[in-house]
Specification:
By secondary structure, the chain is mainly beta. The protein has one domain. Helices cover 14% and strands 47% of the residues. A six-stranded antiparallel β-barrel has the order 1-3-4-7-6-5. Strand 5 and strand 6 form a beta hairpin. The protein is globular and about 60 Å long.
């Protein structure tokens, strides 16, 4: 019984140590567009009689602007709908690979794919 407790404690501690601390950044939502940046927007889609909508969220953090895509079905209650963010408002963001985690205006954590990254031009 004591060995099981020790094993449980070791597993919990190792999981906590293995978890990487997220490096959140402050950013600003500069705009929301319906067009894909630098590419032809995908054709309108209909899935089971529901129209698929997309919005692109442009978030500037440091000297990089991240463009995230959010899509949802119109007329269908889905977890993905327009995000609860304010244009020109503060956004807290964490980048992991090709995904961004953001905290929306209510503090809810949301994961969305990064469509593109745009760096500011170097100062002359």
């Amino acid at each position: 019984m004591k060995a099981l407790r020790v094993l449980g404690i070791v597993l919990v501690l190792s999981a906590a140590l293995a978890a990487k601390e997220r490096e959140w950044q402050d950013g600003t939502l500069t705009k929301i567009t319906s067009d894909a940046p630098g590419a032809t927007d995908p054709a309108a889609e209909t899935v089971s009689r529901y129209h698929i909508k997309r919005a692109y969220y442009w978030i500037k953090a440091g000297n990089i602007t991240y463009v995230l895509v959010n899509s949802w079905a119109v007329g269908f209650h889905a977890a993905k709908a327009p995000l609860n963010l304010t244009v020109n408002g503060k956004v807290t963001i964490f980048i992991e690979g090709q995904n961004a985690f953001i905290l929306d205006d209510s503090g809810k954590e949301i994961k969305r794919p990064i469509v593109t990254k745009i760096a500011e031009p170097a100062a002359p």
